[in-house]
Amino acid sequence: MSQRIGEEEIYRVLKEAIFNAELSPGTQLVETSLAEAFGVSRTPIRAVLQRLKYESLIKLVPNRGAFVYCPSPDEAEQIFSLRTLLEGEAARLAAEHATPQQLEEMETFLHQEREYYRQKENHKALKAIADFHLTLAEASHNPFLISYLRQLISLSHIIFTFYDTTDQGEPHSMDEHGAILEAIKNRDGRLAAELASSHIHEIKGDVDFSKAVKHSLSIEQLVSRYVKR
After folding, report:
1. What is the pTM of this model?
2. Which of 48, 113, 168, 179 is deepest in the core (most CB within 10 A)?
3. 125 vs 139, 158, 211, 225, CA distance in Å?
4. With 70 as the cut, is the pLDDT of residue 229 above it?
């Protein structure tokens, strides 16, 4: 490589590659190979792997190394069950406390979701959906609820990145997101909570763990594709 790149760039490349399903679950991320491909020492690589572990994007296995992580079917069931409970409460609180800016942000992410699905860019649509739900959580203005939901939404994003089946039919999430946002705008906490909880319950049906996952790109291919020259 013509120039050394920093930790932030390495973090961006690996995170984008995971969310674009170009590093599949179980792929090992070897420190020495990453350091060589990015042209850096192992120190920034270790720091990046710790950040990805904190976000539940990789799992660090003692004496084995780092592996791209995706929740198992049993773990996914637990994640969605907990989201059903917590996101309903977040929506109720958002109806009381959401600021005009947060309402506008949710509207923007909903628009992005529609456009990305229209353009058949499903992975970008999933990112917009995650941002919609994160903003909804933040609009609750309950820091503990936000913290828990941030992790659950990130884990859900990973599950959908690899095992979403909405590409086989018309996604129903857009209408459901729109209805939730409308209830929040109308300051109807009861309806917002019911719609949000029902929505999380429904989207579990969009996950198929038997779906084939494409092979990972090599680290060299990722660097070539993602690193800004």
Report:
1. 0.84
2. 48
3. 21, 13, 19, 21
4. no
Residue whose token pair is 């490349």 = 13
Q: How many CB atoms lie within 10 A of CB 154?
A: 17
Give the separation between CA 76 and CA 105, rounded to whole angstroms.
28
Cα–Cα dist 93/215, whole Å: 42
| Residue 82 CA neighbour count, 13 Å, CB half | 15
Lookup: tokens for 97? 């406390």
Q: Looking at this protein, which amino acid is placed at residue 124? A: K
Token pair recorded at residue 154:
């990130």
Judge whether residue 204 has pLDDT over 50. yes
DSSP character string of 119-134: TT-HHHHHHHHHHHHH
Strands (E), the chain: 28-29, 58-61, 65-68
Check: CB of residue 99 under 8 Å from CB of residue 187.
no
Domain that holds residue 202: 73-206
* pLDDT band for position 167 (cuts 50, 70, 90): low
Tokens in use for 121? 């860019």
96 and 16 within one domain: no
CATH classification at residue 61: 1.10.10.10
If we measure between CA atoms, which residue out of 41, 64, 179 comes closest to residue 110?
179
CB 185 within 8 A of CB 104: no
Assign 3-class secondary structure to 21-41: CCCCCCCEECHHHHHHHHCCC
Which residue's entry shows tokens 């003692």?
62
Q: Would 168 be classed as within a structural domain?
A: yes
